[in-house]
Design a protein that fits this description.
Helices cover 32% and strands 19% of the residues. It is of the alpha/beta class. The chain has one domain (1-66, 94-107). The protein is globular.
Length: 107
């Protein structure tokens, strides 16, 4: 069985051990393929073709979201939320870490 994951990097280019640790855990799991999206630095967000999403921590105040990356990020979360409400038999799973807890109650 193939399991695809998207890692949403919110570290904004900051050197850290978090990404290496997440990649290490993903590579040691049953996940067969993963891609990394640089949300804050490159305004990248994944589509809904993945089975699992991991959204990382990051520097700064998570309540001070910049529109440049925040709008695409929240649009992605809205699409994911809508998908999960219409596909309850096979939802997309998300792990939000630290900085990812930007808006309580969205998912």
């Amino acid at each position: 069985m193939s399991i695809r994951a998207a890692i949403l990097d919110l570290y904004n280019g900051t050197e850290n051990l978090g990404m290496a640790s997440i990649k290490h855990l993903v590579e040691g799991s049953g996940i067969t393929e993963y891609d990394v999206y640089d949300v804050r630095l490159k305004n990248e967000v994944p589509d809904l073709s993945y089975d699992v999403y991991i959204s990382t921590g990051g520097p700064g105040n998570p309540l001070e979201v910049e529109d440049v990356w925040g709008v695409p990020f929240f649009n992605f979360l809205d699409k994911l939320w809508a998908y999960n409400h219409t596909h309850r038999d096979h939802p997309k799973h998300v792990l939000f870490i630290c900085h990812s807890f930007l808006d309580e109650g969205r998912l």
